[in-house]
Amino acid sequence: MIQAQLKLRLNNIQEARLVGWLWNLTSVWNWAIRKIELDAKDKIYYTPKDLQNLLANHGEKLKIPSHTLQGILLQAHTAWVRCFKKIAKEPRFKGVRNKLNSIPFPDPIKLPKGNHIGIPGLGKVRFHKQELPEGKIKCGRIVRRASGWYLCLFIAADRKPIERKDSGKIGIDPGFRHLLTIAALDGQWKKVEHPRELEATESRLAQAQRGQNKALTARLHERRTNQVKDRNHKLSLRLVQENVVIRFSNDNHKGIARKFGKSVSSSSHYQLRQMLVYKSRSGGTQYDEPDSKFSTKTCSDCGSPSGPTGWSGLAVRQWRCSDCGSLHDRDVNAARNTLFAGVGTTHEEACHV
User: Fold this and answer.
1) pLDDT for 185-201, tens place per residue?
2) What is the model's pLDDT at position 160?
């Protein structure tokens, strides 16, 4: 399944209709999650079909396609199921601070003709023309963002295999001063510079917030999100193309975020890891996330746990092993230990690589 996004070019009537749908679907969402919560206390549970039947024929009254109404009810049911299974948090009401910004279209959608695509309830809608993967469009979703309206299409198609450019084996240590530190099995290493997208827009964002310009604030947030996503897509693709084995250190980002929240948000390592997971499957790369415990303080040459530890040890960027005398860069040493742990290489074997 491949997702493709089309930026729509709506006329005034179509945009006003979508705004009205969002208003009504917000009420439907709030009603559904409250209904499920209260009835669950009385040991009354619903299947997705039973919940959808509670609002049968209400699509005509609200002037919303019936399958779209059923789609939002299915989302509410799925949200509570995930909560009951301890997979996700309790679903929240939608309102001014937590807006509903998407409209589901669970039925298959016909392929576009030219730069027009047919959407139930809206008719033919124009979009900025772009190429789509060949395949059947299983369903869709209209999303409202600061930069406009987008149609997300879910297409039943196979991804093209990623072209192999090299056959390296690397260990990766994520960081905040440098985005990544990469160590290869042959002893080579390099550091990927941090683009600092958040810092670049920080002053402009603060100015927009002080001026209470909500539209500009939302647009700046979206632009920064797009920049980070583009950076991670390009970086993950390059890593998968150049390496047959990737080991990414599994750090405790939740704990780190409590102390360095902005740095963690700016780096977006979690998003990069998710991209590496699915691109590795397509490119035939072995991807793993070894535990990062003791990776910093363990000497990558002799295995002695003589390195810096604790929060105070973060200021120590270079250190010398007290047992073998090797001088280490903190991040490079952690990346090497991550690689050795992932490929199952002992420190004795690593010395002869």
Assistant:
1) 888 888 888 888 888 88
2) 82
Q: Please write down the HEC assignment for all residues of the chain.
A: CEEEEEEEECCHHHHHHHHHHHHHHHHHHHHHHHHHHHHHHCCCCCCHHHHHHCCCCHHHHHCCCHHHHHHHHHHHHHHHHHHHCCCCCCCCCCCCCCCCCEEEECCCCCCCECCEEEECCCEEEEECCCCCCCCEEEEEEEEEECCEEEEEEEEECCCCCCCCCCCEEEEEEECCCEEEEEEECCCCEEEEECCCHHHHHHHHHHHHHHCCCHHHHHHHHHHHHHHHHHHHHHHHHHHHHHEEEEEECECCHHHHHHHCHHHHHHHCHHHHHHHHHHHHHHHCCEEECCECCCCCCCCCCCCCCCCCCCCHHHHCCEEECCCCCCEEEHHHHHHHHHHHHHHCCCHHHHCCC
Quick: pLDDT tens for 213-256.
999 999 999 999 999 999 999 999 999 999 999 999 887 767 77
Instruction: Look at residues 62, 146, 74, 63 and name the one whose alpha carbon lies nearest to residue 105.
Output: 74
Q: Which two tokens stand for residue 149?
A: 């309206």
Map tokens 């002869």 to a residue: 352
pLDDT surpasses 80 at 349 = no
Place of tokens 């969002």: 22
Q: Is 43 exposed, middle or buried (0-12, 13-18, 19+ CB in 10 A)?
A: exposed
Compute how many other C-beta atoms are within 10 angstroms of the C-beta atom of residue 30: 17
Q: What is the pLDDT of residues 148-164, one digit of tens each?
A: 999 999 998 888 888 88
Q: How confident is the model at residue 353 (pLDDT cuts 50, 70, 90)?
A: very low
Q: What is the pLDDT of residue 134?
A: 85
pLDDT of residue 347: 44
Q: Contacts from 320-324 at CB under 8 Å and sequence distance 24+?
A: 323/299, 324/299
In angstroms, the CA 249 to CA 246 distance is: 10
Position 277 pLDDT exceeds 90: yes
For the beta carbon of residue 198, count every other beta carbon within 10 angstroms. 19
Residue with tokens 């991550």: 338
Q: Is the pTM of this model over 0.90?
A: no
